[in-house]
Design brief:
Layout: H1 3-18, E1 22-23, E2 29-30, H2 32-40, H3 49-58, H4 62-79, H5 85-102, H6 108-125, H7 135-143, H8 147-151
Antiparallel strand pairs: 1-2
Helix pairs in contact: 1-2, 3-4, 4-6, 5-6
Length: 152
């Protein structure tokens, strides 16, 4: 994914959630239903996980972050068995790190979506590796940080 594709995703998200007009590459207007259908393609294959992470890391749009988080939750749920234990832990650590670094600056609806993702990963991975059972210890680190982290 590059900057132009990110801008396209952000425009589709704005159309989906706020009804803001958006146009396709050929200049035709895109409806909310079309925007939703295009964005749902992010949930079609585990190969889209890096794109979702790119959106989270690079986008300034809260709606794009929400779509990326929801897509990651769906992808993790649907393709859980295709990941190695190490990949599962990497994804978990990525989301926890993202919440630690950017959580206080995110809109509540994005934070809730990311927390649901952490909970889903923890639930699915509970018996895979002891790391998943250490969530309480990881969350305690949030309580020792800033007031905004405590609120998270």
């Amino acid at each position: 994914m590059d900057a132009s594709q990110l801008a396209q995703v952000e425009a589709l998200c704005e159309t989906l959630y706020s009804g803001a007009p958006s146009t396709s590459e050929d200049g035709k207007p895109i409806s909310r239903a079309d925007a939703q259908a295009r964005l749902l393609s992010l949930q079609s294959s585990a190969e889209y996980i890096p794109q979702c992470q790119y959106i989270l890391d690079q986008s300034n749009s809260q709606y794009a972050r929400l779509v990326a988080s929801n897509s990651l939750t769906e992808l993790i749920t649907s393709y859980w068995n295709s990941f190695t234990v190490a990949q599962r832990i990497d994804i978990r650590n990525y989301v926890l790190g993202y919440l630690a670094n950017r959580g206080p600056g995110l809109q509540d609806f994005v934070v809730v979506s990311l927390i649901k993702l952490v909970c889903r990963i923890t639930k699915l991975g509970w018996f895979d590796d002891p790391t998943h059972r250490e969530l309480a210890d990881d969350v305690t680190k949030f309580l020792q940080a800033t007031v905004d982290h405590c609120i998270l």
